[in-house]
Amino acid sequence: MNAMTSALDDTLLALADPMRRRIFEVLFAGETPAAGIAAAIGIGQDVLAGHLVVLETAGLVARRWKAGKELVKADPAPLEIAAEWIDTNRELWAMQSQMQESSRDDGSPEQR
Q1: Can you give the pLDDT at residue 79?
Q2: pLDDT for position 4
Q3: Among 61, 78, 59, CA closest to 22
Q4: Per-residue three-class SS string for 9-47
Q5: How confident is the chain (112 residues) per 10-residue block, as mean pLDDT?
Q6: Which residue among 19, 21, 72, 105 has the highest number of C-beta atoms inside a 10 angstrom radius?
Q7: pLDDT for position 3
Q8: Calpha distance 36→89 (Å, rounded)
Q9: Kind and range of the H or E element at 92?
Q10: Which of left, alpha, beta for 19 (phi over 0: left; psi -120 to 50: alpha)?
Q11: What does the DSSP 8-state code read for residue 65?
Q12: Is 88 exposed, middle or buried (0-12, 13-18, 19+ CB in 10 A)?
């Protein structure tokens, strides 16, 4: 598996969970204390910590400590890899559909 595939898998797996997507959305506002994230989405900090590990492993968040508080910020860069994969596959599916439409219009038998 190449690095791009691994990064794509990490990103998609991290965002497959609705709670992690919600955490990421909360971070759109900017760097936020972990306690503030937990309060905003109604979960305990222990549950949040597990989700943050997954998001951090995927490169979607960065964490740091300042004055005894854990601060978390989003890093949307891995979304670019996912967006590129989605766009490429959307284009390929569109071309495939056009080819099938053309072959049906030509009276050619549909291939499966």
Answers
A1: 93
A2: 61
A3: 61
A4: HHHHHHHCCHHHHHHHHHHHHCCEEHHHHHHHHCCCHHH
A5: 78 96 96 98 97 96 97 95 88 76 66 50
A6: 72
A7: 65
A8: 37
A9: helix 77-105
A10: alpha
A11: E
A12: exposed
Kindly state the tokens that stand for 49.
């910590």
Amino acid at 59: G
d(CA 50, CA 56): 10
Measure the CA angle with vertex 22, ends 6 and 86; round to 5°: 40
Identity of residue 94: A
Whole-number Å distance between alpha carbons of 49 and 38: 9
Query: Which structure tokens are listed for 48?
Result: 């949040």
Amino acid at 8: L
Tally of residues, the chain: 112
